[in-house]
Amino acid sequence: MTTDAARPVSPATEKQALERLRIPLLAAGIGITAVLWFGAGKPLLAAAFFAAWQMALMVVRSQSRASDALREEQYAVEAIETASRALRAGIPLSGMLQILSQEARGEAGRAFREIVQRESLGEELGTAVRNVLVRSPISALRAFGLSLAVQVNAGGNLADTTDRLAHSLVERSRVRRRARAIVAYSRTAASVLAVLPLLAVALLCALVDGYAATILDSHHGNVMLALAALMIVAGLAGIQRLGRIEPQAKELES
Predict the structure, then answer these.
(1) What residues contact 100, with CB distance under 8 A and at least 6 apart?
(2) What percent of the chain has pLDDT over 70?
(3) Measuring CA to CA, which residue among 101, 254, 82, 217 is closest to residue 162?
(4) Within a domain: 96
(5) Which of 10, 124, 133, 157 has the smallest number of Cβ neighbours within 10 A?
(6) Residue 106 above 80 pLDDT?
(7) What are the tens digits of pLDDT across the range 218-234?
């Protein structure tokens, strides 16, 4: 059995670090925008920088949410595998739920603890499962909740159903890992191509006489620089969306 000390804490620590950095990053963007607007007298460039800064933060948050969703789905699959082993060992349904409430991680653990708490307060098990698991935003928990609800209301071999469900979810995880490996190349190439224009502008400013003044001081140069920054960030956001493998929360709730 897995103890609390043995559980990895890096995902939660990473999420908390991102939450702590969100306000300082937003404040830094506002500060740089104010310097460009009032200090340098370039309102167009300042507005474009702030928009690009916000879009970049949105891309980072989107990647973080996708990583969190993938991790929660994996925790749910682990919990269903544990449930399958417990049922195969002859542990009753109530005992299996107690084990999952103690051993499951993430959203899956919170869901099973809520079911156990609801049942201890007198709520029927089928109702608790429908209110918690069937309405969960995680597809694996919803599928497992439907299996539990059918077994509670109509009976059946829950061990075989859970075993087949766990096997199908593991196979789906393997397919997703292969798909992410295929998409990873295009994402990496897009990130490299997004950095190259920044390096090109820096080199041209250093090597070509008058280029820095044209880009940074003239109105047309500011417009070109602003449009280029916006298009780069918009392209990165589009590539991240097109290369997304895991469903988003709105799709899961539909």
Answers:
(1) 79, 82, 83, 86, 108, 109, 112
(2) 83
(3) 82
(4) yes
(5) 10
(6) yes
(7) 778 777 877 887 787 77
Largest CA distance in the chain: 81
Note whether residue 29 is domain-resident: yes
Number of domains in the chain: 1
Using CA atoms, how far residue 171 sits from 10, 35, 77, 102, 166, in Å, is 26, 53, 11, 26, 9
Say if CB 137 and CB 72 are below 8 A apart.
no
Mean pLDDT, the chain, integer: 76
Nearest residue to 235 (alpha-carbon basis) of 24, 33, 36, 55 = 55
Asked whether residue 86 is domain-assigned, the answer is yes
Q: Which of 137, 143, 101 is nearest to 118 (CA)?
A: 101
pLDDT over threshold 60, residue 61: yes
Phi-psi region of 158 (alpha: psi -120 to 50; beta: other; left: phi over 0): alpha
Identity (one letter) of the amino acid at 7?
A: R
- Indicate the pTM of the whole model: 0.64
Q: Which domain holds residue 46?
A: 10-253
In-domain check, residue 51 = yes
